[in-house]
Amino acid sequence: MTGADDDAEGAISPSGFPQEPDGYERLWTPHRMVYVDGPAKVTTTSERECPFCVGPRGSDEDALIVHRGATCFVALNLYPYNPGHLLICPYRHVPDLTTMTTAERAESIELVSAGMEVLRATKRPTGFNSGMNTGTAAGAGIAAHAHLHVVPRWDGDANFLPVIGRTKALPELLGDTRAQLAAAWPAGE
Q1: How far is residue 68's CA from residue 88's CA, in Å, rounded to a whole number?
Q2: Which candidate, 34, 76, 51, 31, places its Cα nearest to that of 177?
Q3: How confident is the model at residue 45 (pLDDT cuts 50, 70, 90)?
Q4: Is the pLDDT of residue 6 over 50?
Q5: CA angle 104-89-102, nearest 5°?
Q6: What order of strands is seen across the sheet that includes strand 65-68?
Q7: Distance between CA atoms of 181 and 8, rounded to whole angstroms?
Q8: N or C terminus of the chain with fewer C-beta within 10 Å?
Q9: Which residues form the catalytic set?
Q10: Going from the N-terminus, what domains does the chain have, and what CATH number goes with each?
């Protein structure tokens, strides 16, 4: 549902209250409210409630896990910037690189590299953004559990839609992306 049906003079909001038109189209996504203020929102440092601690206890499909390593695992981001947006997380509930063991740091970087190779083979991106947001001030959505991002990028993927339309179009379902990447992940990595 968009605001396209509103008339330019005295547009009507979904709740029926008159408002001034602002030139934006609306893409209503109420299903994302569970992330904003529902059970999916992480406001605690508790391992019991952390999705990066809970996820590996379930099935790979349910937790969107692409690969399980010895000290870290690779999962799809539930709210990806682009199709194939990976998260590399240690199994242990630690807040940043300084609290990860040497083995966890080493494996996480190896998994970033392997993830890039798998994404190149399956999605053919022309570039990547990778890194870690440490702490809420740095933009970490789940600051209590360290995780690295690997975001595939394509020439022109930052088109008008997210920049002007403030909307991100994702052409593939997360389950389909997870299955494709998991099948392409090299054995023993």
Answers
A1: 10
A2: 76
A3: low
A4: no
A5: 10
A6: 65-68, 72-76, 86-90, 148-153, 127-131
A7: 45
A8: N
A9: 147
A10: 1-41 (no CATH), 47-184 (3.30.428.10)
Q: Is the dihedral of CA 51, 52, 54, 57 positive or negative?
A: positive
- Res 2: pLDDT: 46
The residue with tokens 């549902």 is: 1
Give the CA distances from residue 68 to residues 30, 35, 73, 99, 142, in Å, rounded to whole numbers and listed in that order. 32, 25, 4, 20, 20
Phi, psi values for residue 150, rounded to 5° = -130, 110
CB neighbours (10 Å) of residue 79? Answer: 13
Structure tokens at 29: 């996504």
Alpha helix locations (H) across 7-126? 33-36, 51-54, 60-63, 102-123
CB 108 within 8 A of CB 100: yes
How many angstroms separate the first and last alpha carbons of the chain?
44
Which residues on adjacent β-strands are paired with residue 72? 90
Q: Quickly count: other Cβ atoms within 10 Å of residue 110's Cβ.
A: 14
What does the DSSP 8-state code read for residue 154?
A: -
- Residue 161 pLDDT exceeds 80: no
**Phi, psi at residue 111, to the nearest 5°?**
-70, -35
